[in-house]
Hints:
Layout (H helix, E strand, L loop, with lengths): L3 H22 L7 H30 L4 H29 L1 H19 L5 H15 L1 H12 L6 H33 L5 H18 L1 H5 L19 H17 L6 H8 L4 H25 L4 H22 L3 H29 L5 H30 L1 H22 L14 H6 L6
Helix pairs in contact: 2-7, 2-8, 3-4, 3-5, 3-6, 3-15, 4-5, 4-6, 4-8, 6-15, 7-8, 7-12, 7-14, 10-14, 10-15, 10-16, 12-14, 13-14, 13-16, 15-16
GO molecular function: transmembrane transporter activity
Pfam families: MFS_1
Keywords: Membrane, Transmembrane, Transmembrane helix
Amino acid sequence: MSSPIDCVQAPTVSNSGTVARLRSWWQADSLSRQFFIFFVAAFFFDFGIGLYFFLFNLFLLNLRFDERMMGLVTGALTLGNVIGTIPVGILARRFGLQKLLLFCFIASPLMSILRTMVASMPTQIGLAFIAGMALSCWPVCFAPAVASLTTESNRAFAFSIVFATGIGTGTLAGLAGGSIPQMLFRIHGVHHPADGIRLVLIGASLLNCIGIWPVSRLKLLVPPKIERNGRPLLNPFLLRFLPAFAIWSIVTGSFIPFAPVFFQKQLGVSLQHVGLIFSASQFAQFSAVLMVPLLFRKVGSHAKIIGAQIVAGAAVLVLGMSHSASYAVAWYLVYTAVQFTAGPGFYGMLMGRIPEADRSTASAFQNIVGALAGAGSAALTGALVVRYGYSLVFNIDAILTGVVALLVCVTYGYSAGVADDAIVSSSALNSTGGRGL
């Protein structure tokens, strides 16, 4: 029989255990001051870019650009981003991440402001291409910067925070972009909707400029040069990493861009409710990314990715079989949330298994493969939907998630006896010639 003292102490012990588990999950205290300086820069960049991209097509619409013209402008931006990736990766290895980040935070707002000043389609296409090249600095430098400012023990948690913040700022950008132009139109007497949107776009660009100050205070060293001595340019682990990541990018770039059309056209959901579904999906992604370190703390990055893919495959399969809008929305939220939880795992694993000197190159190739796979997936999905309907797309996505899970299991080192989170540190990799695992 328990004593009265035991009965009194039991809740205390239970509560202290809960607090201890929460503290072990929330590892913010272990993150360095330099990481939080970078986090501030990333916050303003994500919020400014999110607000800008949310409104820019509406700005073009008010300038009487049609969807074909918008597609050409968007394509030029994507092409510039892809073409700029390799040169940026080379420059990052030579001059360091900080200088490239400063260039990004100066050049991209400047080009963004210039894009609001012209109404000529050829000029818009040219400026979009240059803006895409300037913006390519961010995806190339982002992951190596986070990796260099964290340790093996807190890296996955750091990526989760940055990913979740990026998603959260996207939600804020949508809310701000939907209300501020109308407020300016009423209060300041803006006579044309394009003028109000232009002011917000310029403000969004200036928000990006705020990141210049924290980036200038970062202490990101130039990566040490590694003598190749006949070794290949691309790290062996990167070559194993890219095929699975490419297929996963095909999955993530498939249905999501067409989700609003699916809900409105196929299920008869009103446009207002489609907007609410979008906001709910953003919140689900935000929550899921933050919960990943708690849910998968004991299993490692390798199992995180596989687990996310299995659940995503099941969710998209059930989504395809849903005939009720409420069920479809529920499974869509599960699908989008789980889909984004694999992101920190992919980034953390790649940056952990690549030597510091090779991280910029690895991030550049990851960006190229992801962008091309996502763009091709969206184009192919559109053609498949028109000809065969959404059911085939859902089934293909479910099959591809299974293929990716199998590839991750076979090619990412676990089958060779490599523990998921026993990721070799950068110094250890450098001492062994950066061969990877």
